[in-house]
Amino acid sequence: MLNAIDRRVLKEVAELEGIPKGAYNIRKNGKLLGREVSANINIETNEKGDGIIIDIKPGTVNESVHIPVILSQAGLHDTVYNTFIVGEGADVTIIAGCGIHCGGKESEGHSGIHEFQIKAGAKVKYVEKHIALGDGTGRRILNPTTKVFMAENAQVEMELTQLGGVDEAKRFNEAKIGAGSVLLITERVMTDGEQVAESRNEIELIGTDSKANIVSRSVIKGNSSQDFYVNLTAFAKCYGHIECDAIIMDNGRNQTIPALRALHPDAEMTHEASIGKIANDQLMKLMSLGLDYDAAVNRIIQGFLK
Amino acid sequence: MLELKNITYRVPESDTDAQSPSDRTIIHDLSFTFEAGGFYAITGPNGSGKTTLAKLIMGINEITSGKIIFNGSDISKLPIHERSKAGIVYGFQHPARFKGTTFRDLLSIAAGSDDEEKLIEIISRVGVCSLAFLDKRVDSKLSGGEIKKIELATVIAKNPKVAIYDEPDTGIDLWTIGPMVELLKREQRENKTTTIVVSHNKAFLEAADTLLLIKDGKIGYSGDLAGAVSILEDSSVCKFNELCQGEENAQCYR
């Protein structure tokens, strides 16, 4: 069922050596390649037929769902709407991600829209990795959207990673956080060559004692550019923090625009942002331990994006 | 073993206008030989050139003229990492803080191995940092003392022939300075590490076999502590009180 390219893509985006255990849905070139449900996790195609609904029963713990997407058909621009319903008190890991393998001149793209309805007390770890491979010259385009709606006392941790090969990326993250709920987003993006990446985030702290922590780590090499926008709005007594750091190498360009809006007198919000080259003292330290300049740069970048 | 031959270090004067560029000499025609396995303390007033001298040995700053000979080889032009590979390692006064990099990462680079047992053995040998430090991120959240202990451990993990420590006691609590001195003495004794400590702290000055007093970029004195006491006491008394008096002009003229 899986050819060599599929296996390579799956390994890159989902660290899978083959078909995963537990519930999964593998989409390839706009079509279903394989699906498995479990006693607690149901996956079915939505009514319009343009995506899937992943329904996780209340109280499901220590289970995972893999929903990787493989794109290897020249000229295909695939759009998918997936809905995750995570029941009360569930504690699950969702591994998503898209790998493009481009072998020709035509562009290939994937737009995944993921909506999460997180019920009270549920805990979700969402890991999404984007990568593009192949020797083709066609542009590789990935435009992911996530919409997160959190009820009370839920926790969502999102790890969003794009570490190479993607020519154009427009990401949009939206979240509404209920009382006592916590949202942690860590976004790591590395661009090179002429690549461009944009990330827009609209995060709303709606319930009392809700919390959000948004971390962005960018490495911008070659002539690439990255723009990062985040609007964090507080409607209640809550806590929000934004931390964005960009390392510029070569001729990279970066815009980082963190915005805090407090619409409640008890909102507590902070942000820190930095853009710059690799700090000289870090390089000196690693070189004094015996690494040459290039090895020192690599180690610093590795740590930064870890 | 480590020989500094007529080394001079000059930097462009920053506060002169471009019309008449001039240089400022930080280290002035300085010569000294560090013998293998010795414990040296470099001391002197602020701005005298102590840290600069230490950085010249490591290659963090490049000498303007002169030569640095290490075990018979001229290392004057070698970059930092090659001096490190030759056996010279440097503990920074203000250690770098990273984002994402952990103590384990640094220790593994220094030790050339990420073997858990080996790393634990190094931490036990250093003694001043707990095992719980291993997965701490070396970032801005660490206290001044914690990061200095980590810095010390990374130097020792490299098993240097020459270990240079720039003010190792900065931010370290009083109760740790004694064990830290003991540690450096033990490394000197057991591993024959040539130890060079830039410090004002009496504990390090007393621990040293030889003391170098740097003044205006030159060696004002070299020898044992007893011989330096009168000079140190003399320079600890300010002779410019009259000039400094009054709030209008509270500049230090020393």
From TrEMBL, chain A:
<dbReference type="InterPro" id="IPR055346">
    <property type="entry name" value="Fe-S_cluster_assembly_SufBD"/>
</dbReference>
<dbReference type="InterPro" id="IPR000825">
    <property type="entry name" value="SUF_FeS_clus_asmbl_SufBD_core"/>
</dbReference>
<protein>
    <submittedName>
        <fullName>Uncharacterized protein family (UPF0051)</fullName>
    </submittedName>
</protein>
<feature type="domain" description="SUF system FeS cluster assembly SufBD core">
    <location>
        <begin position="83"/>
        <end position="304"/>
    </location>
</feature>
<dbReference type="InterPro" id="IPR037284">
    <property type="entry name" value="SUF_FeS_clus_asmbl_SufBD_sf"/>
</dbReference>
<dbReference type="Pfam" id="PF01458">
    <property type="entry name" value="SUFBD_core"/>
</dbReference>
<dbReference type="GO" id="GO:0016226">
    <property type="term" value="P:iron-sulfur cluster assembly"/>
</dbReference>
<comment type="similarity">
    <text>Belongs to the iron-sulfur cluster assembly SufBD family.</text>
</comment>
